[in-house]
């Protein structure tokens, strides 16, 4: 008992995933599946590295 609301939510999410049109970058998906190196857009900017470098593990 009490499963009606949860099941309705799951059904709603499943329908949304099934019928919504997604714009998928198929070339990026193929590159990821084939294990090709990531593009340069995935690299972290130096300012971000400097900001968080104090939290990095120190391995001397």
Characterize the structure shown:
It contains 3 helices and no strands. It is mainly α and 60 residues long.
Strand and helix map with partners:
Blueprint: H1 4-19, H2 26-34, H3 46-52
Give descriptors for this structure.
60 residues, mainly alpha, single chain
Strand runs, count: 0
- The helix-strand sequence is HHH
β-strand percent reads under 5%
**Cα-based radius of gyration, to the nearest Å:** 21 Å
What value does the average pLDDT take?
80
What is the share of helical residues? 40-55%
Structural classification? mainly alpha
In short:
This protein has 60 residues and is mainly α.
């Amino acid at each position: 008992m009490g499963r009606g609301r949860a099941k309705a939510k799951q059904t709603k999410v499943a329908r949304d995933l099934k019928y919504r049109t997604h714009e998928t970058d198929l070339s990026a998906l193929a590159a990821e599946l084939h294990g090709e190196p990531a593009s340069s857009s995935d690299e972290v900017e130096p300012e971000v590295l400097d900001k968080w470098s104090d939290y990095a593990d120190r391995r001397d």
